[in-house]
Design brief:
Number of helices: 3
Helix content: 25-40%
Length: about 170
């Protein structure tokens, strides 16, 4: 599991490196394949196109949108657009790895979840986090939240855009 998680982490880091440096525009055929189903590669242009499309589709009062960008089997790297903060969350069996693509906000992580309610097998939500650590977030920041750790994203300005990946938690 550690090897798979490390490979996923390295792949995501390389993707962000490619995106930020503008490496390798994809061919028209690759872009069409990308549009129909996520694959293992997205160019910087693909990332920007998907982000523009998602922003155009969001309703004025919609606070969050998630859409897969690249995929390797069950492992998915997705663009997350946060316009409003969600509820504090815990993913019991999955670590969350994310890179801030644009915007700014706050991450509160660790501590204890108050008023936990199970939403589904992979999500527990609560009313607040007690005793967590607060960190400012901006473009280029890298986040790794261990499985089972409470976390919450605050939004500063218009939005916070993340490239997020869920990874199996360590056993």
């Amino acid at each position: 599991m550690k090897t798979m998680a490390r490979a996923s982490t390295i792949g995501a880091t390389l993707l962000v490196f490619a995106v930020s440096s503008g490496i390798g525009p994809a061919s028209a055929q690759m872009r069409r394949a990308q549009a129909s189903e996520p694959s293992g590669f997205a160019s910087g242009a693909d990332v920007q196109t998907q982000l523009r499309e998602m922003l155009a589709e969001m309703k004025p009062d919609q606070g969050f949108m998630w859409r897969p960008l690249v995929r390797d089997g069950a492992t998915v790297a997705a663009i997350e657009i946060w316009k409003k903060p969600g509820r504090p969350a815990v993913h019991p069996a999955e670590a969350e790895y994310a890179i801030v693509l644009e915007g700014s906000g706050t991450l509160v992580s660790g501590g204890a979840m108050a008023d936990p309610k199970v939403s589904n097998a992979n999500l527990v939500e609560g009313s607040r986090i007690e005793g967590g650590t607060t960190r400012p977030l901006g473009p280029g920041d890298v986040i790794l939240i261990p499985a089972g750790a409470p976390h919450w994203f605050g939004i500063a300005g218009d939005r916070l855009v993340l490239l997020g990946i869920k990874l199996p938690g360590s056993k």
